[in-house]
Design brief:
Blueprint (H helix, E strand, L loop, with lengths): L5 H10 L14 H7 L10 E8 L6 H20 L3 E3 L2 E11 L4 H13 L4 E3 L4 H11 L5 E4 L16 E3 L4 H6 L1 H7 L6 E7 H17 L3 E7 L7 H9 L4 E5 L2 H14 L4 E5 L5 H10 L6 E6 L10 H14 L5 H24 L5 H8 L8 E2 L3 E4 L5 E2 L2 E7 L2 E7 L5
Parallel strand pairs: 1-3, 1-4, 4-5, 5-6, 7-8, 7-9, 9-10, 10-11
Antiparallel strand pairs: 2-3, 11-15, 12-13, 13-14, 15-16
Helix pairs in contact: 3-13, 4-5, 9-10, 10-11, 13-14
Length: 414
């Protein structure tokens, strides 16, 4: 899962509440800005309420801040275009974002409050740490929820959870990108050490191990407590396994010290980071040590890279972001913003297709009208499979000799 680095911290400190965002507190909406000045153009019955649970504080705030921006930008674009057209009426979106505080108890409480306040559409939480609990709290409530976890894909789409949708690709799709990445890094065989925090690693590490074993590698799993700050103990055990490559993931906050320690201990000659940009971690280490980074670094990410040379639709998304936030996005920021940006647009199109803003069952059915032959064209090319998991393309990249080289894997056609 993508993590954010120093650039993201700088972006937040400069742009958290500027320009059009100056009207936001915990409630974030274009219509809220109108009402704060003494009156709203969207009266009762002309507004669709959308709730966001974003981790704006705590350990996961780097995810939450950008998921909040994702929702803000998407709602702004919908409202600016005139809103949702259903039954001859136009509906604006009123967005309320609540801090999940990186805490399951707080996130569940926020979800229950949204349900009691009549919200039919909830986006978030943004990571595995809280999403599974929230999905249980909103099950069988008639509420549509778009969650950002990956391990909760075993829950989404099952009985009682048919109105819940993932904003991350199927685990098997993005995890399979490790195989062409290993080949591109020149690693055709050997031991692959899978080093993950134990919370998400309990699900993710075995899945990686299965994929690697089927391809002829020898995977070995090493889980560490998610609160770990000193990685020497786990990496000493990893080194004893003599891995050809170290595969680690979840966040740049853990990835940076873990990889730095692996470098110091000489654990492996190559590292694969799941989620970080291929340049972010090694360049940071190189600058801190005053020398070039000696390891080959590969990176897997779950969405198309923020590369202006990709597609026209992605270039349009870059310009939208620049106009709204007055700053050019970097790769790590962009891929997290996209988590919720396209699903908001897909929800709006599904409402218009189903000709309702209240019948969540009909709207959920309409979401499946997007197919490989007729996908949703947003910032990416998207559709939902039968298990309510979004399908997109994947990128992976190799950092070698100070340069990044990206390869795009298109989404499957079924």
């Amino acid at each position: 899962m993508p993590g954010m680095g120093k650039a993201a911290q700088t972006w937040r400190s400069k742009h958290r509440f500027t320009g059009i965002l100056g009207c936001i507190g915990l409630i974030v909406a274009v219509t809220a800005c109108a009402s704060s000045s003494g009156g709203s153009s969207a009266s009762q019955g002309t507004t669709v309420k959308l709730g966001g649970i974003c981790d704006l504080s705590g350990d996961l705030e780097t995810f939450g801040q950008f998921c909040q921006q994702s929702l803000q930008l998407a709602v702004h674009e919908v409202n600016q275009a005139g809103g949702i057209s259903v039954g001859g009426h136009k509906y604006k979106i009123a967005l309320k974002v609540v801090d999940g505080r990186s805490d399951p108890t707080a996130s569940v409480a926020a979800a229950r409050n949204f349900v009691s306040e009549g919200y039919k559409y909830i986006f978030g939480p943004d990571t595995d740490v809280t999403s599974s609990q929230v999905l249980q709290a909103t099950a069988n409530t008639g509420v549509m929820e778009f969650a950002g976890g990956s391990s909760d894909q075993a829950i989404i789409g099952t009985p009682g959870h048919t109105l819940q949708f993932s904003v991350l690709q199927p685990n098997s799709q993005w995890q399979s990108a490790v195989l062409p990445l290993l080949k591109k890094m020149g690693i055709a065989s050997g031991t692959v050490a899978i080093v993950y925090p134990s919370d998400v690693g309990q699900t993710i590490a075995p899945q990686f191990a299965q994929i690697l074993s089927a391809a002829g590698y020898q995977p070995k799993q090493f889980l560490y407590p998610p609160t770990t700050t000193d990685f020497r103990s786990v990496l000493t055990r990893v080194k004893a396994a003599h891995p050809a490559v170290l595969l680690q993931g979840y966040s740049v906050q853990q990835g940076l010290p873990l990889t730095t320690t692996a470098l110091q201990l000489g654990v492996a000659g190559a590292v694969i980071g799941v989620g970080e940009t291929p340049a972010q971690v090694p360049e940071t280490i190189a600058k801190s040590q005053g020398k070039s980074f000696p390891l080959v670094w590969g990176s897997m990410i779950a969405e198309r890279s923020m590369d202006p040379t990709t597609t026209a639709q992605f270039g349009k998304f870059v310009r939208l972001w620049e106009n709204y936030f007055h700053l050019s996005p970097n790769l790590a920021e962009a891929q997290t913003v996209i988590w919720f940006y396209d699903p908001v647009g897909m929800l709006v199109k599904a409402m218009e297709t189903a000709n309702t803003v209240t019948n969540t069952t009909a709207i959920a059915k309409a979401l499946h009208s997007f197919t490989p032959a007729h996908p949703y064209q947003g910032a990416l090319t998207d559709w939902y499979n039968s298990r309510n998991v979004i399908i997109r393309g994947s990128d992976y990249g190799v950092f070698r000799n100070g340069r990044s080289q990206w390869t795009y894997l298109p989404p499957p056609t079924s």
